[in-house]
Amino acid sequence: MNTNQESVSIPLPQLGLIAVFVTALVTSQVTASKVIGIELPVSLPFVESMILVPAAAFAYAVTFFASDCYAELYGREDATRLVNVAFAMNFVLLGLVWLAIEAPIFANSPVGQSAFSDVLGSSTGIVVGSMLAYLVSQNLDVVTFHWLRDRTDGRLLWVRNLGSTLTSQAIDTVIFITVAFIVFQGMPLGDALGLIVGQYLIKLGVALFDTPFVYAVVGFVRRRGRSPSPAVGD
Length: 234
What we know:
By secondary structure, this protein is mainly alpha-helical. It has one domain (13-104, 111-223): Arp2/3 complex 21 kDa subunit ARPC3 (Orthogonal Bundle). It has helices at residues 12-30, 56-74, 76-102, 113-120, 124-151, 157-183, 189-223; strands spanning 35-44, 48-54. It is globular and about 55 Å long. The mean pLDDT is 88.
């Protein structure tokens, strides 16, 4: 009997991007309960002088950085697979967190049951809103990225990085705030618009900041010949 088996090896850079994507996604789920207030030097429409944004926004923005690098290096099909497998893993995360919350607590536990539940337990609206926003926006990001890549003949990486991220992040923000706060919590439209504008401003800043790092990662991997996607001058 032939016992030889073919082994499938995933290149280290590809594995690294998968790890960054999943780590950022999980981090965004467990940090969603904290709201950050960022003071502005000037007053802006809807947000006035302070931006309110979930702490998860920063980690979640990293998922778009990782998926854009991944899409550029390994193609649309692999990037779509990454996004959808990670979506399924969200349910595993939710199940494990629920199990940890519902498990009986030791009387002398250093963290009380109420505090533990408050931090890790998300409301139904937050869960539904975040999952729906993720499924739509991350797939849109991959599609838009490759649409822009085709339209620019593979050039101008910064255009497809910013174009896909800012488009998909706008959709993500609108879906999440609408579902989680307007539909489930009955938040007034004016307050919801403030959250939408504030979160999008943060995501815009992160997208502008990460563009040089997208170039750095893509260039690093391609110089070592570890990407099946050919390089084109930008």
